[in-house]
Design brief:
The complex is a heterodimer of chains A (about 250) and B (about 475). Chain A is of the alpha/beta class. Chain A contains nine helices and ten strands. In chain B, β3 and β4 form a beta hairpin. Classes of the chains: A alpha/beta (about 250), B alpha/beta (about 475). The complex binds adenosine-5'-triphosphate and magnesium ion.
Chain lengths: ~250, ~475
């Protein structure tokens, strides 16, 4: 599904991701954990095609296609999705209008207004969102938790093949966390892969990962099963740092 | 979808190329430029009463006396001697559709007028060149005493009413361009709504400039008598030409006690047009005047719709949106004068600038002594689509009364990289993403327009953006 090799990313001349390899198979869920500033969001943004970053080395292959030259919208059409850590606000554009435009952009055949309406209703129900939400302006004045729910709503609407969730669980209360996990599990299946970026193993109890990776200073320094997440939560990152000698720049 | 149909009906797809009918006129002034002789000829040709000729000639004097204003946009290239001041496309008003000549019909076809008729829209007054050639009014209104006609017929058929109000809200010596319009005005609409009558379908008129170097000086007067209400819509598109052309209209509104007038405009002038318009309304006791004003195209637009709140409890609202693309300057805003107690006003101005485009908000808020308990709020928001684009704000505030509440807020925002990335990550192309941000930005104004106009506005802005990209 997704294959990352020797990826190096710079921003404003500063290297943030320093040689990263990762493979996500079809139907797999991978978790990435790592301290603040280790480069998780940078990686997510680059996977989705953010123009501000410079990829200086390596490759990203998605469903057999090198995505290097592709703009974000083309990647979306290929089936990639990023649930943002900090979703942008778009004043004056309703959630419903946005969802309609987005869904019709990625689909080959446009949905009729009635089909669209039903789809939005159905997915909002799964996310336990008040139907009135559809008329609110995109992310404007949304609480942190509402923004995250809205991200997952978009994911359900767009039905991606690969979802990258950048700290979707941060700032959620227990109930919301379960709703978000439910949303992800809706899509879970042999055709759906995900990268779940998180600081807490709690969400991984609801969304069981196949692999857990630890990111430190721009590299994946160790990987394992979900027990690795438990160990991290218990012991913090210091032992990883000691063990894998991160912090020195190469 | 019905929305798409409307766009086609309006012929907007073809607009970019500017459709152009052969110039075939019964009357053309013998030369460019303006002097008393031409003014007299216009008046004579229209068979006007003596007082109107005097009005015109006096206005012409003001026009000559007043210097070209320098406080706003750049008018230095404006050459008043290079303009035809009056062109008349056909001898008589077309009373029915069949009377309208074929090429003019074609233009209307492209503008979607007959469809608008079919859809039983209120009445159609369409201005072709300097003259209204086709006009119809639904019978039920005629029965209730509503007058909706072109200004020339208004003067002929309702001389007393016209004489009472014409040039009173905007006197000819108000400013240089009002003076010019007063001297050479032709066409425009005359609307009178009797007491207590509510017109619930918008009245609409379409205007177009067609002949090269031709000025268009329409003159509109709307009177809403006590407790009545009316929504007037003016839509404007112009074909593209190479030399400068001038549009200088005057619009006067009078809302009697408890009346309500909303005047909506979407104007899209070709890029060489100077669009210099004076619009002003007077709201009496508990009356409401609302201007909804969309300005696109033109080389320079200078337009500041005004509301004079002269009766207690009167309310004024000005919503304006301007788009300045490459080489364009939109100098727009609003003026409100609070001259009575407990009056309230709201000015919302939104501007979008792209490339070398420049948008200026210029506003005046004046509160006279004694206008106690008045409230006013001014909000102007500018959106810049790239680094070069420019915006400025000139809010003039004169307050002579202490017991008032005024607020002013101005914001400048840019279409951010992160915002675009967010939208594009959901499958929207870059253009679609920018269009979405822009449409969201003008939403507060678009939602005040009837649906087909809101769509037209969004679509026009989208076309402008595409045009300046390619
Ligand atoms: N635009 C930028 N300019 C300069 N430095 C940047 C920029 N964006 C990110 N960085 C730096 O890159 C590093 C990695 O940031 P990133 O947001 O990827 O971390 P993260 O792992 O997602 O952290 P967190 O857990 O706090 O979300 C940080 O040191 C950050 O300051
Ligand atoms: Mg992050």
């Amino acid at each position: 599904m997704l294959n990352i090799e020797g990826l190096r990313i710079e921003i404003d001349g500063q290297e943030i991701v320093k040689g990263l390899d990762m493979e996500v198979g079809t139907g797999e869920i991978h978790a990435i954990m790592g301290p603040n500033g280790s480069g998780k969001s940078t990686l997510s943004n680059v996977l989705m095609g953010h123009p501000r970053y410079d990829v200086t080395a390596g490759s990203i292959t998605f469903r057999g296609e090198d995505v290097f030259e592709l703009e974000a919208d083309e990647r979306a059409k290929l089936g990639m999705f990023l649930a943002f850590q900090y979703p942008s606000e778009v004043p004056g554009v309703s959630v419903a209008n946005f969802l309609r435009t987005a869904v019709n952009s990625v689909r080959e055949k446009e949905l009729s207004p009635m089909e669209m309406y039903k789809l939005i209703q159905e997915k909002m129900k799964i996310m336990q969102m008040d139907p009135k939400f559809a008329e609110r302006y995109l992310n404007e004045g949304f609480s942190g938790g509402e923004k995250k729910r809205n991200e997952i709503l978009q994911m359900l609407m767009l039905e991606p093949k690969l979802a990258i969730m950048d700290e979707t669980d941060s700032g959620l209360d227990i109930d919301a966390l379960q709703v978000v996990a439910k949303g992800v599990n809706e899509l879970r299946g042999p055709e759906f892969s995900a990268i779940v970026i998180t600081h807490y193993q709690r969400i991984l109890r609801y969304i069981e990962p196949d692999r857990v990776h630890v990111m430190l200073d721009g590299r994946l320094v160790t990987s394992g099963g979900k027990e690795l997440a438990d160990a991290l939560e218990e012991k913090g990152y210091d032992w990883v740092r000691q063990e894998f000698g991160a912090g020195t720049h190469s | 979808m019905p929305e798409d149909k409307t766009i086609q009906e309006l012929g907007l797809d073809e607009y970019k190329f500017g459709f152009h009918d052969p110039e075939d006129y019964f009357f053309k002034t013998p030369r460019k430029g303006i002097d008393p002789e031409i003014v007299a000829m216009i008046s004579k040709h229209k068979d006007e009463p003596e007082w109107m000729l005097e009005f015109r000639l006096k206005a012409l004097e003001s026009f000559f006396e007043k210097p070209t204003p320098t406080w706003g946009g750049d008018l230095s290239e404006m050459d008043f001697d290079e303009i035809y001041y009056y062109i008349r496309p056909m001898e008589n008003q077309g009373r029915t559709w069949d009377d309208v000549p074929e090429d003019i019909k074609n233009t209307f076809e492209k503008l979607g007028i007959p469809q608008a008729e079919r859809e039983s829209l209120a009445g159609v007054g369409a201005q072709y060149e300097s003259e209204v050639v086709y006009h119809s009014l639904k019978e039920e209104w005629e029965k209730s005493g509503v007058i909706f006609t072109d200004m020339d017929s208004g003067l002929r058929e309702h001389e007393d009413v016209v004489r009472e109000y014409f040039g009173k809200t905007i006197p000819p010596d108000d400013n240089k361009f009002a003076a010019l319009n007063s001297a050479v005005w032709s066409g425009g609409s005359f609307v009178y709504v009797p007491p207590g009558v509510h017109i619930d379908i918008p009245l609409q008129a379409y205007f177009r400039i067609n002949a090269e170097n031709m000025g268009q000086f329409e003159r509109t007067l709307i009177i809403a008598d006590e407790g009545s209400s009316v929504h007037y819509i003016e839509g404007c598109t112009a074909p593209t030409y190479t030399s400068n052309s001038l549009h200088s209209a005057v619009v006067e509104l009078i809302a009697k006690p408890n009346a309500r007038i909303r005047y909506s405009t979407i104007q899209n002038w070709s890029l060489n047009t100077y669009n210099l318009v004076t619009k002003r309304g007077v709201a009496h006791e508990n009356a409401t005047i609302e201007w909804v004003d969309g300005n696109l195209g033109s080389k320079l637009t200078m337009k500041y719709p005004a509301v004079y709140l002269v009766g207690e409890g009167a309310r004024g609202e000005i919503l304006s949106v301007a788009y300045a693309g490459d080489g364009q300057h939109q100098d727009a805003g609003g003026k409100v004068v609070h001259a009575a107690p407990n009056t309230s006003s709201l000015i919302t101005s939104k501007s979008i600038s792209k490339g070398t485009g420049r948008s200026t908000y210029r506003g005046l808020l004046k509160v006279h002594e004694g206008a106690v308990g008045s409230k006013s709020r001014v909000e102007c928001d500018a959106l810049l689509l790239d680094e070069q684009a420019r915006t400025d704000t000139y809010p003039y505030i004169e307050i002579e009364e202490k017991k008032v509440n005024t607020e002013h807020e101005a914001t400048v925002s840019k279409v951010g990289e992160d915002q675009l990335f967010y939208l594009m990550s959901r499958g929207l192309s870059e253009e679609a993403a920018i269009a979405m941000v822009v449409n969201g930005f003008i939403e507060p104004i678009a939602k005040e327009l009837p649906l087909e106009y809101a769509i037209e506005l969004n679509r026009l802005i989208q076309m402008e953006m595409e045009g300046s990209v390619g």
